[in-house]
Amino acid sequence: MKLNRIELADIHSPKVLARILRQQLGDTGPRADIFAVAKALDIDQIELDIFDGFEGMLLTDRVRSRGAILANTRHGMKRVRFTVAHELGHFLLEKHALTDTEGFRCRSQDMQETLESRQELKQETQANQFAIEFLAPAPKFEFYLSEGPDLKDAETAGDVFGISLEASVRRLVDLRPEALAAVWSHKGRIRYHHRANGFPWINRKSGTVIASTTPAFQAISTGNIGISNLAETHPTSWTDTFGLDLWEQTRVGYDGHAVTLLWAERPESDGAENDEFEELGMPRFR
Residue 105: beta bridge partners? Predict the structure, then answer.
């Protein structure tokens, strides 16, 4: 595999960088060989093993002349693929400052980072943006989306692109036009959430129990592995917004793990504007 690293220099947008790299690959199908790509871009070694204390590590120098990547296999090969792509993002995004004396050391929570408040968090966010844009390019991913939001699409796309269900659900939430959120839980307690397109603030903190009035609670309580049907739910079970049309769908996995997809819509109105739902967003010219 031959790739032109010179063409990738001085590109500081992670999404643009991923798209140009994909263009260099040509039409290779939806699942890119991230290991071959990394080695073609001066990553001399990729070591896969069970590590403690970090999810991934990039060993390199300040000028990124060569590099080596360590990826934790504890959570499976789909997660490994994302980790390698994440570290490759650090390697190619030249403005990223080393966070360790020998390169970059990334924890599990860094692979979920979406904030840009501090430089280090911004770097982790950008590495994540590069990874998902390269592994699951938006135009290719959207091909697997149904007419309406459905967690089954995330399952299918995850298998096609070789990414974890978590990464695939996040991609679905970000790319669909509806106001969506995803809530991950373990044994009925919320772990974290991700929302996009103006979905209202979720008032349930990490560690709190999912409201017993929700279809999610019922699906998780039964313990039946699989995806529930989309069902209407009360908006205040998840948000502080009243008068909101809200639906939910839950995928129950093994060992008490689950993810719930939330879909919010403005209620029918008589045509008058209602500022209360401004957070849901309205199409605007930019």
Answer: 57
